[in-house]
Amino acid sequence: MTLSNSCYLIKHGNDWLLWETGYSQSIAGSSQPYKTPVITWYWKAPKNLTAELSEIGLAPEQITQLGFSHAHPDHVGNGSLFPKATLYIQQAEYDFYLAPTGKPPGAPANWQGLRSNRTVKLQGDYDVFGDGSVRILSSPGHTPGHQSLLVQLPKRGPVLLTGDAAHFRDNWDNRRTPVQNFDKEQTVQSIDKLARIAAENKAEIWINHDAAQTATLPQSPNYVE
Fold first, then answer.
1. Cβ neighbours of residue 32 under 8 Å, at least 6 residues apart?
2. Measured between alpha carbons, how far is 189 from 139 in angstroms, rounded to an integer?
3. To bridge 142 with a disulfide, which of 53, 122, 164, 223 should be the other Cys (CB 3.0-4.6 Å)?
4. Distance CA 79, CA 100 (A)
5. What is the pTM of this model?
6. Which 3 state secondary structure label does DSSP give 53?
7. Domain chopping of the chain, boundaries
């Protein structure tokens, strides 16, 4: 199956928030598959994350805020590239994956440097900038501390970045839960919560791994306002 795997760069005043860091760019450009015990990945993106940032004049050190929906290797894979960013993560996710006693994200994720970042460990929803423009929404189920992001864009309007609360539109519409999810009931409850918030805000719903939908959205260096 083909999955998209987007990273979202959000400008807020003088701050840059990166939401999701993608699969490790150490495999970018390789024509060989990357095999794990449960899946074989084939990299199809023409550029890696650092190159895409450079294309719009940014270096990793200029990212001031950092977050990801969860700590699986295809989302936290380039986390160590952003040492100066404040990390926002649910306490449950940090404890399960990133803490010294946790279960480390799978290879080839480059995440260990995140332990040195200034970190805000959350216990639920959180208003990142304090003005309602970027809100982290706790949405556990896929992992213990999965979270999603509601962004109020000034021209396009509200956009909900679901992360892996649902992998495809079919999962979202029919409340289908992958067997590998941490908690099935939590997953369904979280989708219900996100659907309610999306309806209340009249928000677009962007599903990270849904390649068909992602193909319709602007790609860097293009952007939405």
1. none
2. 8
3. 164
4. 16
5. 0.96
6. helix
7. 8-214
Q: What's the topology of domain 8-214?
A: Metallo-beta-lactamase; Chain A (3.60.15)
Per-residue DSSP letters for 137-150? EE--SSSTT-EEEE
Percentages helix, strand, coil for the chain (3-state, rounded to 5) are 25, 20, 50
Dump pLDDT digits (tens) for 3-17.
999 999 999 999 999
Q: Which residue from 116, 144, 140, 122 is spatially nearest to 193, judged by alpha carbons?
A: 140
- What's the pLDDT tens digit per position in 124-173? 999 999 999 999 999 999 999 999 999 999 999 999 999 999 999 999 99
CA–CA separation, 108 vs 110, rounded Å?
A: 6
The closest alpha carbon to 17, from 77, 86, 76, belongs to 86
CB 53 within 8 A of CB 60: yes
Report the distance separating Cα 28 and Cα 13, nearest Å. 31
pLDDT of residue 28: 82
C-alpha to C-alpha distance for 51 and 206, rounded to whole angstroms? 24
156 to each of 8, 161, 188, 200, 223, how far by Cα in Å? 15, 14, 28, 16, 11
Please name the amino acid found at residue 194.
L
* Helix intervals (H) in 157-203: 169-174, 184-201
